[in-house]
Design a protein that fits this description.
The protein is α+β, with helices and mostly antiparallel strands and 127 residues long. The protein has five helices and three strands, in the order ααααββαβ. β2, α5 and β3 form a beta-alpha-beta unit.
Length: 127
């Protein structure tokens, strides 16, 4: 199960990277995520590796992911990290709009329950 999750997470990450490279910002400048990458290396930052493998936690993550993917959102929003540990969900990653952020948070609250969601979703600055 753990290998399946890691392969799925890797596939989503690769798909997101490929889509971002195709769309481009049109400004001719490369994105600089150095500060975000350094922050995410910290031991307190949850990553998909922290996802619990029990049926309840994987079910919560899968249901939230299904709702996100079934809703028309940007590729970035569809690739938000959803990490569940002991029924508590952490959401991380960039989205294009405040509406996407709110929608993903709503899905998480509906599935995991109010008070069980830590949203660290960031809205990308306009370019």
């Amino acid at each position: 199960m753990k290998k399946l999750f890691l392969v799925t997470a890797l596939g989503l990450a690769v798909a997101g990277c490929d889509q971002g490279a195709k769309s481009g910002s049109g400004s001719g400048t490369a994105r600089d995520n150095t500060a975000v990458n350094e922050r995410d290396r910290g031991s307190a930052a949850k990553t998909p590796i922290d996802q619990n493998e029990n049926e309840k936690d994987t079910g919560i993550t899968a249901e939230i992911r299904k709702r996100v993917v079934d809703t028309k959102m940007s590729i970035d929003a569809q690739n938000v990290k959803i990490i569940t540990q002991d029924g508590r969900v952490t959401l991380r990653g960039p989205v294009k709009t405040a509406e996407e952020k709110k929608q993903i948070e709503t899905f998480a609250h509906e599935v995991a329950g109010a008070g069980n969601v830590d949203s660290q979703i960031e809205i990308e600055p306009a370019r």
